[in-house]
Amino acid sequence: MNLRRISTLLALVMLLPLSSANAAPIYVFPVAGCEVNYARAHHDYAATDILAKAGCKFVAPINGVVDEVNRTDSWSGKTNLGIDRGGLYVSIIGEDGVRYYGSHLRTIPASIQPGVVVKAGRLLGGIGSTGSARGTAPHLHFGISWPTPPQTWWVRRGEVLPWKYLDAWKAGKDLSPVKEVNARKLKVGEIPPVPKK
Fold it and tell me: Does the CA dihedral 89-167-61-35 come out positive or negative?
């Protein structure tokens, strides 16, 4: 286990006093203060694109710890490498043990760094069109998965369909993806094979 993973786990342990042992996690919709639209379909894997105006706030959907931050847009249409498609992105590991990922950001606050403890609703970035979203309407690519080692982009981008959770959180309901995430991980393995696309 690398040092970054150890520090993330320690930060998660530090989150425990934020809620009582019997309290369920509190979830919030990951885009704050803007009109949004999202479809019930996404390419060939489980994720969704939340359409919103450029600069709208991507916020932490749950208390957690910042896992990964990428501030460099390395995507090229010539190579279209999967690892680069997200452009600018942030992922957090929620207090529920689930990873929440948002990409195609145009900005990320300097205070958002791996290992930083965040509360639900904290600003993680501004919605944009970086990575493979260049030339498209601004949107937040939102994925739900389990924590994996760095560079495992095919899991990070999304492993469970997020729409029922987004619908619930938008309505102010606490619907947890933990069971579905754990079931998917059991089915495909912690690090499934890299997709061909």
Answer: positive
Domains in the chain: boundaries = 3-188
**Global pTM value:** 0.89
d(CA 123, CA 50): 16
CATH number belonging to the domain at 3-188, selected among 3.90.190.20, 3.40.50.970, 3.30.310.50, 2.70.70.10: 2.70.70.10
- Give how far Cα 1 sits from Cα of 15, 66, 149, 166, 192, Å: 21, 17, 9, 32, 19
For residue range 148-177, list pLDDT tens digits in order. 998 899 999 999 999 999 999 999 999 999
Note the pLDDT of residue 25.
Answer: 82
